[in-house]
Design a protein that fits this description.
The structure is a single chain. By secondary structure, this protein is an alpha/beta fold. The protein has one domain. Helix content is 18%, strand content 22%. The protein contains 2 helices and 6 strands. Strands 4-5-3-6 form a 4-stranded mixed sheet. It has a two-stranded parallel ribbon with strand order 1-2. Helix 1 links the parallel strand 1 and strand 2. It is globular, with a radius of gyration of 13 Å. It starts with a strand and ends with a strand. 13% of the residues are buried. The model has no long low-confidence stretch (mean pLDDT 85).
Length: 95
């Protein structure tokens, strides 16, 4: 299992990790507490750490990238966007 936890948004290109890990047919990926958008990917500052930026990735593109690696979405949930430590949230962003 590859557990991104709440770290996927700090990677400039998550596909690099996908290319470096040797997944088998039973592999799982867990992503939690990560903001996504239904619009174009964008970057925003993190509120509670001034030197951190977060990449708000397009959710549909993530699903497409997963399918290319033979992964499927098993479960998706969303929590209150106010819990995300992101400045300048754009419309169509969810957490």
């Amino acid at each position: 299992m590859l557990n991104f936890g709440s770290s996927l948004q700090y990677l400039d290109n998550y596909n690099i990790i996908f290319d470096q890990v040797d997944f088998n047919k039973n592999s799982k990926i867990l992503i939690t507490a990560t903001s996504f958008t239904t619009q174009k990917k964008y970057m925003s500052k993190q509120i509670n750490h001034l030197n951190l930026n977060q990449n708000i990735n397009n959710f549909k593109k993530l699903i497409i990238d997963f399918k290319k690696k033979n992964f499927q979405l098993v479960f998706k949930s969303s929590i209150n966007i106010k819990l995300a430590s992101i400045k300048n949230l754009k419309k169509k962003t969810f957490f």
